[in-house]
Amino acid sequence: MTNRPLYIDNLQYANWSPKLFEEMKMANLAAVHVTICYHENFRQTVENIITWNRHIESHPNRLQSGKTGNDVREAHQSGKTAIIYGFQNCCAIEDHIGLIEVLHQLGGRFMQLSYNNQSLLATGCYEREDPGITRFGRQAIREMNRVGLVVDVSHTSEKSSFDALQYSARPIVISHANPSWWHPSKRNKSHDLIKSITSAKGMIGFSLYPHHLNDGSDCTIESFSQMIAESANRYGIDCLGIGSDICQGQPDSVVEWMRNGTWSKDRDFGEGSAEDSGFPKQPKWFSRIQDFPNIKQGLQKVGFNTNEIEKIMGLNWLRFYDENFGPKEN
Predict the structure, then answer these.
(1) Rounded Cα–Cα distance for residues 55 and 18 (Å)
(2) What is the per-residue pLDDT for 3?
(3) Any residues with CB less than 8 A from the CB of 83 and at least 6 apart, and which?
(4) Which of 68, 174, 232, 267 has the fewest CB atoms in 10 Å of its CB?
(5) Which residue(s) pair with 12 in the sheet?
(6) Distances from the Cα of 158 to the Cαs of 14, 124, 206, 260, 297, in angstroms?
(7) What's the pTM?
(8) Mean per-residue pLDDT for 44-62?
(9) Alpha helix positions (H), the chain
(10) Residue 272: what pLDDT?
(11) Tell me, what's the pLDDT at 246?
């Protein structure tokens, strides 16, 4: 048995390499939710899954597949990191509801209903109009609930997110974002939405992506930790986790592809400026994967006790995995 605390980062999109897999170990990460799809169709997403399967096969002493909470516990005990597959858009299901079950069978455990733009399922947070969840979206959510593919509304608009909460028979998540009362980013979420999701046993994973942070790249660990403390006061301790959204080692061309996809000929600068069109600089205290334990120090300074810190740093996500990664019980 290990006495090490169990940490989980519920969203990363780094430029994966053996060096970063070792950083996961240095960070004591028992699980990482990795992005498998942004704009890719089903076949392209499967190719990404194949690539990740090969990573896991090639690093058996460092990585393992993460499909259940028990996989995460096993990885933690053996000093490995469980890799959980997730989709930041619904492109991978194309217009075929049957692909939801197939993607779950291939290891997918989280799927966002949209990525900034309108999708076949829901409206993205960058759209001016928000008609809400579509007819296909309602059916997709029902099927996601059935198989155990978690509904994620991190990039989804306000009304569509509330609709998703209404139509989902299982808890939904904001895997990586922060409260808009702390920093008014288009990607951050309102108090009412976070309160509604967490009150229904859902989760929010706090993001370290600079555009989501108060003061951006200059955000202090004290400010970030105080935001989590206020969130605990508003929403309770049991619904809070980390979804860092770190993109370590990715070239600037990748963030432009993330924003633009194949839908636009114009450059979409997101919430940055044209002069800062690439990846923003990470805060010094969280500049790489191995810095994950620094969050613990910040939480200690704002008054969280050991049990509360362990929940925020991993145990809350682990409980959520146990309850939501499998088929819906009748």
Answers:
(1) 9
(2) 83
(3) 31, 32, 34, 52, 55, 56, 63, 64, 65, 66
(4) 267
(5) 34, 246
(6) 28, 9, 18, 21, 33
(7) 0.95
(8) 98
(9) 18-26, 42-58, 69-78, 98-105, 135-147, 158-167, 191-199, 221-235, 252-260, 294-301, 306-310, 316-324
(10) 56
(11) 95
Residue 164: HSE in the Cβ half-sphere, 13 Å Cα cutoff: 35
Q: How far is CA 273 from the centre of its chain?
A: 24
Q: Hey, what CATH topology would domain 7-324 get?
A: TIM Barrel (3.20.20)
Q: How confident is residue 24, by pLDDT bands cut at 50, 70 and 90? A: very high
Tens-place pLDDT, residues 151-192? 999 999 999 999 999 999 999 999 999 999 999 999 999 999
Angle (CA) 240 211 306, round 5°:
25
Average pLDDT of span 209-228 = 97
The domain ranges of the chain are: 7-324
**Strands 203-206 and 173-174, sheet pairing:** parallel
% of the chain beyond a pLDDT of 70: 96
CA-based nearest residue to 301, from 226, 245, 246, 248: 226
List the one residue out of 143, 217, 211 whose CA is nearest residue 178: 211
29-37 and 63-65 strand pairing: unpaired
Report residue 56 as tokens.
Answer: 């896991």
> What does pLDDT average to over the chain?
94
Phi, psi of 8 (to 5 degrees): -135, 130
Q: Are 248 and 14 in contact (CB under 8 A)?
A: yes
- Alpha helix positions (H), 175-262: 191-199, 221-235, 252-260
How would you class 304 by CB atoms within 10 Å of its CB: exposed for 0-12, middle for 13-18, buried for 19 or more? buried
List, in order, residues 6 or more apart from 98 with CB less than 8 Å away.
Answer: none
Average pLDDT over residues 95-115: 98
Distances (CA, A) of 330 to 119, 144, 145, 327: 30, 15, 11, 9
Q: Which two tokens stand for residue 200?
A: 């229904």
For 203-216, what is the mean pLDDT? 97
Binned at pLDDT 50, 70 and 90, residue 330 comes out as low
